[in-house]
Amino acid sequence: MSKRAIRILLIVVVVLGGLFVAADRFAVSFAENEAAEKIKSKEGLSSTPDVSIKGFPFLTQALGGKLDDVEIGMKDYDAKSGGDTIRVADLSATMHGVDFSSDYSSATADRAAGVARISYDELLKAAKSEPVKLPLGATGEVVGLSDGGNGKIKVEVEVSKGGTKLPKPVHVLSSLRVEGDAIKVHADTIPDKLEVLGVSLPLPEGMVRDVTDFEEQISDLPGGIELDTVQAAPDGVDVAVKGENVDLMS
Fold first, then answer.
1. Could you tell me if 92 and 71 are in contact, meaning their C-beta atoms sit under 8 angstroms apart?
2. What is the mean pLDDT of each run of 10 residues along the chain (250 residues)?
3. Nearest to 162 by CA among 192, 134, 193
4. The organism sits in which domain of life (predicted)?
5. Structure pTM?
6. How far apart are CA 208 and CA 206, in angstroms?
7. Which residues does residue 85 pair with via DSSP β-bridges, in sequence order?
8. For residues 245 and 64, what is the distance between their CA atoms, to the nearest angstrom?
């Protein structure tokens, strides 16, 4: 083969390769948009989620009917919390081994892992909504949650007696854990007494924990993913989620 023929052949290969890459990127963009719209409709979302199909080339994965990895990001997802709802500010997850039907109407991931961010204001809704009785006619109520550092959250308790609030709220550091479909907040230590308006107020641990300790149930997450672990973050709690045979679109 002459040098001219080889040069022409190389040019043809480069051009065809470029066309294939362009076609592949167009196809993956189209698939991502279609998947995003289907997920939005299935989950009843107010905004379109971000969908990113990983791996190259996409077309060979599509022909095989299985995608390596798909990343999905959602904002302001309303999960269930008992008979109410709880707003998940951000939910991002990577789906591994995604099988889809020939008409692209359904897709199932072998497994999934991700993180859900819940703000402290949302988590606070799970605390007692009414003041809890303490000894000597005092009451206590959780009024704030924040990052306590070292994986803890700071629980702010407002104490009142005879309609008068304590000048400074009481703060306790609490640990977080996941148990089933619930995030549980448990104070590490409880003060045994408190000075209220010149009176030494005894604080039986059981009564105080009725104020400080609470849990938030979270269910009905997309595709059947479940809670795994939880840790405190600056703006809320980060909940690791996971799942198997996750239903994405049907």
1. yes
2. 50 48 71 85 85 82 83 91 87 90 77 94 81 82 92 90 79 93 92 73 82 89 91 94 84
3. 134
4. Bacteria
5. 0.82
6. 6
7. 80
8. 19
Contact (Cβ atoms closer than 8 angstroms) between residue 130 and residue 143: no
Query: Of the candidates 27, 119, 36, which has an alpha carbon nearest to the alpha carbon of residue 71?
Result: 36
Pair of tokens at residue 144: 């704030």
Which whole-number Å values give the CA distances from 8 to 2, 17, 20, 96, in the listed order?
A: 10, 14, 18, 42
Give the C-alpha distances (Å, rounded to integers) separating 131 from 61, 142, 194. 58, 8, 17
Alpha helical stretches, state H, the chain: 3-43, 58-64, 120-124, 205-212
Cβ-in-10-Å burial (0-12, 13-18, 19+) of 84 comes to exposed
Helix (H, G, I), strand (E, B) or coil at 4: helix
Report the alpha-carbon distance of residue 120 to residue 143 in Å, rounded.
Answer: 11
Tokens of 95: 């789906």
CA dihedral 127, 133, 138, 142 (to 10 degrees): 0
Closest of 105, 114, 119, 122 to residue 222, by C-alpha: 114
Q: Which pLDDT score is estimated for 23?
A: 66
- Joined together, the tokens standing for residue 155 give 């629980």
Could you give the C-alpha distances from 118 to 20, 62, 192, 232, in angstroms and in order?
42, 35, 32, 10
